[in-house]
């Protein structure tokens, strides 16, 4: 009977087309608003490495001077990065299966092509483990070697977009490109890689939803050449000597660091190391605040940096509130649509149809309306997300429908229609056959 009632529901869409169109449009607008908002929230709060996010950790220690400190104060963003001394010690610690320190760099790119002038590009200076830790895919070549890491060799990994812009679609491994004022040997080219959010480097000039880094050079090479830092730096109250070397010797925090452990259960071992390290540093006169030493896995890190703030969550609740308002209007329209079919219901009941049959028929019909609303809602959601994407590149990284959100659009639309149809359908089942037959 389902197939029959479904076909009947499709035919009944042509009954009173103006009323049907109004119901479909009301549902579609509510569904589009809620799904578009939830899609953005879903992308913003996503986990780019769900299978290993519980064993990737950001260490946080407080090296800021004691002046102005109140015990128990919530850690600040300035403490979310490390000073060079601590990053160097953590790299030498051998804790975990991988360790990576990094900082943002930016500067001119000088193409060999005469038809292309110099331009500015943004990149990252990490250690070699970064690529395996964050599962960065390669189109050509591979990361630089451990020996390159140790010596600070002038090698470079290019993004696919930058490689194609400079050298075309050929394999450029082994060629040289001039970046940051010096020639670098290309060791690899990344495939498309644009994690959302950019959990590996949320603190920086690009933020959680910025565009991909265009090139990668060894951390040791960047330090050796005293390459300038592109990102945030906290030096409040810190004694700092002149120039780049003064920054390295100071307690200014500007480096980001990640540990990868073999399992989530090794977190306590890493925490013990962090506490022991802080105790040793206090003996040397550092870390006077005696603040707790923190470890954040990926999900905790996103929460700490408030990647999804209260405004985003409020917007989602308001969108669902708007959907609820659309449902109330749809209920009224369905009541009007079904009330004019009382005679039809009375005749069906007189011919032997049960209340359950009537309920099933009318509920399936509301489901058909929900499907129609879902199709239109999907188109409206695409249009809304396209408008949002056009506002900036950052919004473009989160304002797109994926398969789960596509399925959610139809699920929300059909479920909303079925919920809206419960009362009108129940009212239709209460028709008394005898009274309807007498009135005909």
TrEMBL record:
InterPro entries referenced in this protein's UniProt entry, alphabetically: ABC3_permease_C (IPR003838), MacB_PCD (IPR025857), Macrolide_Exporter_MacB (IPR050250)
Transmembrane region(s): 314-340, 361-385, 405-426
Principal subcellular localisation of the protein: membrane
Domain MacB-like periplasmic core per the UniProt entry, residue ranges: 20-226
Keyword Cell membrane assigned: yes
Top-level taxon of the source organism: Bacteria
Subcellular locations according to the entry: Cell membrane
Segments forming domain ABC3 transporter permease C-terminal: 318-432
Keywords: Cell membrane, Membrane, Transmembrane, Transmembrane helix
Record-level GO cellular component terms: plasma membrane
GO molecular function, one term: transmembrane transporter activity
Topology versus the membrane: Multi-pass membrane protein
Entry protein name: FtsX-like permease family protein
Organism (species): Janthinobacterium violaceinigrum
Native organism taxonomy: Bacteria, Pseudomonadati, Pseudomonadota, Betaproteobacteria, Burkholderiales
